[in-house]
Amino acid sequence: MSYLVVYMSHHGTTQKIACHIAEELGSGVTLVNLGENDVPDLTSFSTIIVGGSIHMGLLQKKIIGFCEQNMETLLGKRLGLFLCFMNKAEGQKEFDKVYPSALREHALAKGLFGGELLLEKMNFVERMVVRTVKAVKKSVSEIEEDEVAAFIDTIKEK
Ligand SMILES: Cc1cc2nc3c(=O)[nH]c(=O)nc-3n(C[C@H](O)[C@H](O)[C@H](O)COP(=O)(O)O)c2cc1C
User: 103: number of CA atoms within 13 Å, CB side?
Assistant: First the structure.
């Protein structure tokens, strides 16, 4: 099995999860940070996993672009989609909003992983913004580890 994990991450949480997924899938995994790397030729991968995070209600533009530009190819692959966010009450709604319905319906694994608020990595404006998402005085990690594990199992099994 050849896996491609494509992700974007502002403060490292999605990256951490993408790396964990890649490790758990074993050999034959290519990890691509769309903020730093070019998109490889997708034809050689049997499974493609796409992950991003919500900032001010939006998914990273490069993830949106990747999904739009490669829609037909992605619909022909084993597909996993995941999302990091902090507003748990809105997680499913955000997931349904940011990923195209065709991809959501096609995906064999969908991950709503929660996220982290890492104050030490934020600038002043970001700290102001996150107060509208969650009132925090120190960094918090609310990654849904069971969801991540279930996502990996689904990708491996199906
Ligand atoms: C400036 C900023 C804005 C955010 N806006 C939202 C938001 O609108 N909704 C939400 O659920 N989480 C929001 N979050 C939380 C992020 O989704 C969370 O920190 C996630 O773990 C970030 O992952 P990343 O570091 O991989 O980008 C925001 C975080 C920051 C720093």
Answer: 26
**Mapping DSSP to helix (H, G, I), strand (E, B) and coil, where does residue 71 land?**
helix
Per residue in 59-102, pLDDT (tens digit) is 999 999 999 999 999 999 999 999 999 999 999 999 999 999 99
85, 94 Cβ separation under 8 angstroms: yes
The pTM score is: 0.97
Name 141's bridge partners: 116
Q: Is the CB of 114 under 6 A from ligand 1?
A: no
Domains of the chain: 3-116+143-157 (3.40.50.360)
Nearest to 109 by CA among 88, 75, 69, 78: 78
Q: For ligand 1, is residue 14 a contact (CB within 6 Å)?
A: yes
